[in-house]
Inverse folding.
């Protein structure tokens, strides 16, 4: 080789080495700087996630009785190409799952990757099937929501769906706390998606949901449900709702809306979606109605607070009152004659309250309406609460004002009515009705729920007078059927006609509380469309008496 | 005889006898690469071979047989005087050309993975383009060496190119990548033999420009460009992207031999062209540096042999082989690291491929034979 050829050989060698060194830098860039990025990408490509459902938080009543639990259920399936003895497998499954043998056999012999034989099998059966140890039989465990008391408090609790998601009621309201966080098992797979046998599995443990402790009292709820069902059946009513709450702090002790449904089977093949929604509706918070005479409590408070009326003011009831060109009747056609304000409330005399309403005037009346928190929602921790439907202030003339003052021509939910009355009777401070008391995390940490309360809406004096008046209603007036011996029950009856008036359908209701001096329990019953006698004082008050007779000793002993 | 006289005698003997040299360093590098290649072929192919053929060692066994044959061939070739080949270069050229034509005829050539590159003789299949590379090396080195007038004249460069061109064209018809390598071998030999620089750089510039224009004009290649620039989104970027995933997840020291996940079907045919990406995944940057260093060492041995060969023909043969290995290694790693668009070039000695390793080893045999007769100047100077 000549010298210049040697030099050129060195040029070639040098050139090649330069290229290779460049490639080394490129590799260094990819493998050091790009490593994290590509490794992550590759990992997500290789890993297959299998979810582990997080157990949903439990729901308890105020005494620690379980209202919503989780149950382990199994799904039984066969993996076709792993089955070694199809005959035996089919026989065993048919026996354990109580399915016809021919059908199981058909399924076992079906050429598919995996064939589901039966879902929602109890854990005991699943364990028994596994104990046979037959190849190709797979039992997958899953957790399902279980409501140990069936239909108890169904409208309040709501239910959770197949993916453990809350669908109604508290299950939706506290979804975030109850849900927990699903975990997963990450396994490596090859490009075809087959899991690698010896590859390490990464397990991310599920975080269980937090437990919810409610203000509901299982015993009271249960008793109220029975009472509601009884009256519903007796009077062939459409719906019966009963609300029991503590007027001092807004805690709901019971919320019943009969007919209730079985929470473990909330769906039904025979019902359309519309019918299902009807079935799941909670009349206490989703439906508004004309409150009727119970609303006279509000009118009384407004009148007393404004000073337009005193308990001894004299009135005269001829059986009707003429407002502008209208003649508005009292329920007692003959009229109550001469009576004072106390008598007006005790006899639930409409002309007396029309007079009070007219004395207040639209401006003042609506100011109290607002002050007592009758507009809007109560803020109860349940989804779908309905708003009060009230006249627009500028459209209210004397006739409308007259009808409003005894609780007609506008609509309100039972929960709103009970809450407003609670606030007026507890000494005059606002409460927020609620069911969630506190949440307990897995580590045992208690997180107390706080609700707005304490805002003064009426003076102590008015509140005290009101309690006395309502005590009299039960002791001597229309509410006498709610009297419980040995206790000082106060209350107010109501009978309202539903729309259209021509249908002659009624809602009878009664609101009672105890003790009259310092009420710690308040109950409101509404009976929708009862057959036969429909007077609140006659059919609703005795139910409350019955409930009070049973729960008052229980509450006072606690 | 005392110690001193014995040493003298020994020295004298050495000067008297013809120098017998054999480049054991190169042999060692070759054998090391082959062994490493076999291990990697087994590692990369075992899982998928088990699924496809039910034999985890399916590819490994085939590669082991061709490698063994190749090593025998190499040892035999290292004992055949390289001047001998020149005498048969004409026949070899014609035969290689005929095989290349045969493979292009439908019905004779066999399609594998969508390319008709194989000739089948009973159970044996081989790629004529691999033979063509070796033949081109022998022919070009001989032609340049035997130019009546110096290769320094540009007309002679053209003449040499014209001789290679028919073979180049025939190979290019079925296997463009190997055609490019033939061209690289040719240019490399002429470049080293010639005194000139300018004409090469000018030609390289023109050819490069034309090549880029050609690539961008043709839509089939344009999709490859798209896959190159945007491997994550392009439809054809799958293989490139999977290769990058493999390289990236290797890190500094890799996942360990046999621990690659990308070889489990993610990188298609991982034992072939993309084997380097799996080496990176399993052995990391450290392993990649080792492999590249071995190739640099090999190129350096080639340079040493070419420098000291007995005559120009021997030198140019080694230069051609050097160009061959260098171009293949650079292009393969560049493709795997997505530095250039995808071409189908295998990594010499390591990638799976019977014909390739067989003829590569034959070529190494020739290089070793050239090394056999070299004059080690340093030794002469010291004595």
């Amino acid at each position: 080789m000549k010298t210049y050829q040697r030099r050129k050989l060195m040029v070639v060698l040098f050139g090649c080495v330069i290229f290779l060194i460049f490639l080394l830098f490129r590799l260094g860039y990819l493998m050091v700087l790009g490593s994290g990025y590509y490794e992550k990408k590759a990992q997500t490509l290789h890993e297959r996630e299998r979810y582990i459902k997080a157990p949903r938080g439990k729901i308890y009543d105020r005494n620690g009785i379980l209202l919503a639990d989780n149950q382990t259920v199994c799904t039984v399936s066969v993996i076709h190409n792993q089955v070694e003895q199809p005959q035996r497998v089919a026989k065993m499954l048919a026996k354990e799952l109580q399915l016809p043998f021919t059908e199981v056999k058909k399924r076992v012999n079906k050429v598919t990757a995996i064939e589901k034989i039966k879902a929602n099998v109890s854990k005991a059966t699943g364990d028994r099937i596994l104990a046979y140890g037959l190849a190709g039989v797979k039992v997958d465990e899953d957790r399902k929501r279980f409501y140990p008391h069936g239909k108890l408090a169904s409208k309040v609790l709501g239910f959770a769906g197949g993916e453990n998601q809350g669908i109604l009621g508290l299950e939706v309201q506290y979804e975030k706390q109850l849900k927990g966080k699903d975990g997963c098992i990450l396994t490596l797979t090859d490009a075809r998606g087959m899991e690698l046998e010896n590859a390490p599995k990464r397990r991310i443990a599920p975080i269980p949901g937090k437990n919810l402790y409610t203000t509901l009292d299982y015993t009271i709820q249960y008793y109220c449900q029975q009472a509601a069902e009884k009256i519903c059946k007796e009077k062939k009513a459409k719906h019966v709702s009963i609300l029991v709450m503590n007027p001092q702090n807004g805690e709901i002790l019971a919320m019943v809306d009969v007919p209730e449904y079985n929470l473990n089977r909330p769906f039904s093949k025979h019902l359309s979606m519309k019918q299902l929604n009807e079935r799941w509706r909670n009349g206490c918070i989703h439906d508004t109605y004309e409150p009727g005479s119970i609303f006279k409590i509000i009118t009384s408070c407004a009148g007393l607070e404004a000073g337009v009326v005193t308990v001894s003011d004299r009135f005269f009831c001829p059986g009707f009152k003429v407002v502008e060109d209208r003649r508005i009747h009292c329920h007692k056609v003959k009229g109550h004659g001469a009576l004072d304000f106390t008598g007006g409330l005790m006899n639930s005399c409409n002309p007396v309250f029309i007079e009070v309403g007219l004395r207040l005037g639209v401006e003042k009346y609506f100011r109290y309406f607002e002050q007592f928190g009758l507009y809007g929602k109560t803020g109860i921790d349940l989804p779908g609460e309905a708003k009060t439907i009230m006249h627009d202030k500028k459209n209210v003339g004397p006739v409308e004002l007259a009808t409003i003052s005894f609780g007609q021509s506008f609509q309100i939910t039972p929960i709103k009515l009970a809450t407003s009355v609670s606030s007026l009777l507890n000494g005059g401070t606002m409460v927020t009705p609620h069911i969630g008391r506190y949440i307990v995390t897995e580590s045992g940490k208690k997180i107390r729920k706080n609700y707005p309360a304490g805002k003064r809406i009426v003076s102590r004096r008015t509140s005290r007078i009101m309690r006395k008046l309502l005590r009299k209603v039960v002791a001597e007036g229309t509410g006498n059927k709610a009297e419980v011996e040995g206790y000082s029950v106060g209350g107010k009856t109501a009978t309202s006609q539903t729309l259209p008036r021509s249908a002659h359908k009624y809602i009878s209701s009664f609101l009672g509380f105890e003790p009259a001096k310092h009420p710690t329990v308040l109950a409101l019953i509404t009976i929708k469309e009862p057959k036969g006698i429909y007077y609140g004082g006659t059919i609703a008050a005795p139910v409350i008496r019955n409930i009070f007779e049973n729960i008052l000793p229980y509450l006072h002993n606690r | 005889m005392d110690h001193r006289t014995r040493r003298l005698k020994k020295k004298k003997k050495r000067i008297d006898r013809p120098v017998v040299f054999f480049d054991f360093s190169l042999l060692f590098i070759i054998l090391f690469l082959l062994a490493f290649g076999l291990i990697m072929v087994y590692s990369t192919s075992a899982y998928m071979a088990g699924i496809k053929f039910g034999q985890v060692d399916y590819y490994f066994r085939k590669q082991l047989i061709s490698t063994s044959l190749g090593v025998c061939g190499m040892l035999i070739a290292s004992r055949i005087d390289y001047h001998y080949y020149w005498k048969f270069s004409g026949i070899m050229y014609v035969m290689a050309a005929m095989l290349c034509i045969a493979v292009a005829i439908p019905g004779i050539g066999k399609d594998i993975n969508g390319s008709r590159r194989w000739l089948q003789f009973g159970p044996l299949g081989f790629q004529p383009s691999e033979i063509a590379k070796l033949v081109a090396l022998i022919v070009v080195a001989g032609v340049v060496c035997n130019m009546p007038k110096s290769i320094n004249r540009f007309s002679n460069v053209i003449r040499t190119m014209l001789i290679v061109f028919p073979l180049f064209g025939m190979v290019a018809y079925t296997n463009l990548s190997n055609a490019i390598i033939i061209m690289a071998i040719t240019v490399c030999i002429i470049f080293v033999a010639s005194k000139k620089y300018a004409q090469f750089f000018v030609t390289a510039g023109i050819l490069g420009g034309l090549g880029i224009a050609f690539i961008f004009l043709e839509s089939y290649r344009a999709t490859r460009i798209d896959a190159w620039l945007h491997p994550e989104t392009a439809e054809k970027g799958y293989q490139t992207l999977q290769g990058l995933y493999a390289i990236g997840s290797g890190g500094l020291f890799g996942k360990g031999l046999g621990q690659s996940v990308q070889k489990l079907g993610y990188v298609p045919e991982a034992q072939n062209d993309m084997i380097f990406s799996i080496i990176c995944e399993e052995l990391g940057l450290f392993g990649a540096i080792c492999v590249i260093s071995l190739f640099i060492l090999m190129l350096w041995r080639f340079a040493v042999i070419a420098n000291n060969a007995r005559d120009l023909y021997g030198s140019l043969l080694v230069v051609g082989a050097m160009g061959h290995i260098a171009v293949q290694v650079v292009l393969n790693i560049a493709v795997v690291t997505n530095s250039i668009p995808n071409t189908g070039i295998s990594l010499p000695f390591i990638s799976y491929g019977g014909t390739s390793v067989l003829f590569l080893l034959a070529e190494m045999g020739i290089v070793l034979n050239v090394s056999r007769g070299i004059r080690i100047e340093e030794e002469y100077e010291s004595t």
Chain B has a mean pLDDT of 84. The two ends of chain B are 22 Å apart (CA to CA).
